[in-house]
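Example record

One chain of 189 residues, shown exactly as stored in the release files.
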Amino acid sequence: MNTNRCKWATNDPLYIEYHDNEWGIPKYDDKELFELLILETMQAGLSWIIILKKRENYRQCLDNFDPDKIALYNKDKIELLLLNPGIIRNRLKVESIINNAKAYLVIKKDFDSFSDYIWKFVDGKPIINNWDTHEQIPSFTDLSNRLSIDLKKRGFKFIGSTICYAFMQASGMVNDHTTNCFCHNSFNI
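Predicted structure tokens for this chain:
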């Protein structure tokens, strides 16, 4: 059976699995959103497939993305992470994980949940786009600019507009499956 997918899904089984079962599905769980946001920040300057292939390594070395534990990481833990070949060993990115965990915890406290905070940017429901081709999909929008500015104001690092838009797509805040993709109408609420 020939299933039409978004052009970026390629023929890599990991990408296909991610595309078909994760990307664009609305996510409301705080922990799941935190993991996704951290992984998206690690992507800065890299391709998503690199991060996707390292996701399990990140889960193992970051206490399964537990923000309470990550926020307490110290210099020794940073040095240990920088020796781990299973993750991106960029000091600024590693330090941003800890910084962003702390900022995330403040948002979670201020808004009762990170999900409530993040979904308010789209009035609680996904934006459904109708792109015919991959080339039509923007890499950032006015909305991702606003999200980026707000997250930076709240202390986040490595969180530019392009990273925010990728996060919005992956978390299902925005449905950017192309109209010929079998997933386009699958996840709409």
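Notes: The mean pLDDT is 95.
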